Amino acid sequence: MPIRDVVSADGTTIVYRVSGPPGARPLVLLHGWSADLRCWGAAADDLAARFRVIAVDLRGHGYSDAPATGYDNPKNWAADIAAVLAAESIRSGAVLLGWSYGGIVLSDYLAAYGTDAVAGVIYTGSMANIGPGVPGAATGSLMQEAIPGVFEESAGRAIRAFGAFGNANTGPGADKGPDAQRLFGAGLATAPAVRKALFYRTVDNTETLRMLDVPVLVLHGTADRIVPIENGRYIVDTVPTARASFWDGAQHGLFIEDRPRFVAEVNAFAADLRSFASAV
Predict the structure, then answer these.
(1) For residue 214, what are the CA distances in angstroms to 97, 105, 115, 118, 275?
(2) Multiple choice CATH, 3-279, 3.40.630.70, 3.40.50.1820, 3.60.40.10, 3.20.20.70
(3) Between vectors from CA 226 to CA 225 and to CA 230, what angle results, nearest 5°?
(4) What's the rounded Cα separation, in Å, for the pair 115 and 121?
(5) What is the Cα–Cα distance from 160 to 150, expressed in whole angstroms?
(6) CA distances from 256 to 39, 76, 125, 168, 176 (A)
(7) How many Cα atoms are found within 13 Å in the side-chain-facing hemisphere of 234?
(8) CB atoms within 10 A of CB 153
(9) Average pLDDT over residues 260-271
(10) Once rounded to an integer, what is the mean pLDDT over residues 117-122?
(11) From CA 236, how far away is CA 245, in angstroms rounded?
(12) pLDDT value at residue 280
């Protein structure tokens, strides 16, 4: 699986991993806050059977550069995704899939660049907006409990704060332990200043959602206490082309909690894109 990088508009190097058949439909995976491109685990491998999977390390995360400033500017996030698509010569047909904070990033991209390169969008356990008083940007009870401790530079305090998430990112079950530890490690590996900076911005992508002209799928667990399901419902209610799959009793990381179902629903969504394109 080749690891590649590209320089974004402001000089930030963005690292990403490519897997799957070269001629397959591109599927761009955008991880959440304080995670990295490895967070998808075996789901990325499963998806690579059908897609050309491009898993991105967002700026400030994983092996991508972590600039000192600029996290409050939606144009930077949008340019990062545009740079990856350009580097991979993707001009049409891509599916953008954002988990958690990744949904904000893909919405920033759509607001700046539109849907010319995009055939479909998937939000999973995600929101499109962020900031106090912004619709569709509610903070879950576990995130409220973890903040501000997860911003601490003290390792002990940060570890205790991240512990508040428990198994919310993976769902219950001893077999999810390695996945939970991988996510826990990625959280601590993200610089405290970056963890904090991502929360200190306000973006309302509602108008972009209203104008979307490609199919949108919203996957969300009804028991998500990190990104509440109200945020997923807001996307569904706002996007004219959206449909929802709300998982009863599921939590935040659906691609880990029930990987076969997640992969099946993403595959089914992609299969429907051809009929949508022919209809318009």
Answers:
(1) 13, 17, 7, 8, 12
(2) 3.40.50.1820
(3) 70
(4) 10
(5) 8
(6) 9, 29, 12, 11, 7
(7) 23
(8) 10
(9) 97
(10) 98
(11) 10
(12) 47
